């Protein structure tokens, strides 16, 4: 599952209680997190500009070290500590560790340069499987390593989570964000979408109706289902979110 930076900023940690319940019921769980709001704050403190293209953060050289520090240290280790406090044996890693996520330099869907933003080329699930086999809950920061292992790439957390779910052919892929369901019209709460086929999701993602921040989430869900995940869910991070999503209180892509 993917825990979005905006959702994390809300401070609701009822998700962790649900994670503990899922694990107690025998389910293996992987948590991939974002950290957008914290990155914005850290960049601002250092006087480094921040902008997005097609919902993706442009990451120049002066921003990369800050992004890596926030994601791999601050955000990741805070989640690990919160899990441990609730009896969940969490281990924090990034996509660099063990060559989990390999990437090359990406451009935006409109062809613009994004700096050190990575396009995922391969996912090696072996490090995650080893942690799961050892009884741990992996907490993954979305930073990838280059194909020649020379440097890091900032990878959109949705993209990373969808690719990991697909590589493991997970039973379910859940994106926790700040909206209960995907909206056909971002200004109209009554336009919530209950279910999409992969083809419908592709059409919606390519439309002007799909908000730029939602587009990576939709595309990641499409990739996950296309790689063998049974169902993808997009829902709000709120009490009972996981059980609610699996019961259909989400946008379901299958």
Descriptive account of the structure:
The chain has a single domain, classed as Carbamate kinase. It has about 250 residues and is of the alpha/beta class. It is about 40% helix and about 25% strand. About 45% of the residues are buried. Strand 6 and strand 7 (about 115-125) form a beta hairpin. The chain has an eight-stranded mixed beta sheet, sandwiched between helices. Strands 7-6-9-10 form a four-stranded mixed beta sheet. The protein has a two-stranded antiparallel ribbon with strand order 3-4. The model has no long low-confidence stretch (mean pLDDT about 90). The protein has helices at about 5-10, 15-25, 35-45, 60-85, 125-135, 155-170, 200-205, 215-225, 240-245; strands at about 1-5, 30-35, 50-55, 55, 90-95, 100-105, 115-125, 135-140, 145, 150-155, 170-175, 195, 230-235, 250-254. The longest helix has 25 residues, at about 60-85.
Low-confidence stretches: none
Order of helices and strands: EHHEHEEHEEEHEEEHEEHHEHE
Whole-number total of structural domains: 1
Number of strand segments: 14
Helix content: 25-40%
Query: In the CATH hierarchy, what is the superfamily?
Result: Acetylglutamate kinase-like
Quote the beta fraction: 15-25%
Order of strands in the sheet with most strands: 5-8-2-1-11-13-14-12
User: Which CATH first-tier class would you pick?
Assistant: Alpha Beta
């Amino acid at each position: 599952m993917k825990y979005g930076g905006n959702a994390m900023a809300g401070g609701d940690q009822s998700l962790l209680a649900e994670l503990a319940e899922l694990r107690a019921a025998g389910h293996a769980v992987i948590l991939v997190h974002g950290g957008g709001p914290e990155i914005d704050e850290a960049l601002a403190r250092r006087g480094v500009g921040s902008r997005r293209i097609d919902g993706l953060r442009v990451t120049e050289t002066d921003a990369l070290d800050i992004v890596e520090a926030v994601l791999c240290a601050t955000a990741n280790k805070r989640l690990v500590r919160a899990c441990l406090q609730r009896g969940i044996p969490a281990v924090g890693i990034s996509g660099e560790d063990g060559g989990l996520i390999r990437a090359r330099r990406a451009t935006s869907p409109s062809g613009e340069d994004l700096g050190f933003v990575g396009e995922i080329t391969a996912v090696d699930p072996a490090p995650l499987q080893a942690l799961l086999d050892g009884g741990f809950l992996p907490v993954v920061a979305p930073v990838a390593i280059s194909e020649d292992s020379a440097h890091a790439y900032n990878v959109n957390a949705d993209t990373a989570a969808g690719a990991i779910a697909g590589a493991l052919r997970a039973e379910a892929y859940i994106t926790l964000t700040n909206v209960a369901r995907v909206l056909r019209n971002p200004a109209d709460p009554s336009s919530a979408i209950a279910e999409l086929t992969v083809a419908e999701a592709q059409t919606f993602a390519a439309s002007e109706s799909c908000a730029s921040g939602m587009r990576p989430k939709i595309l990641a869900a499409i990739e996950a289902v296309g790689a063998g995940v049974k169902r993808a869910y997009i829902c709000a991070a709120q009490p009972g979110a996981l059980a609610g999503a699996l019961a259909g209180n989400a946008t379901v892509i299958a």
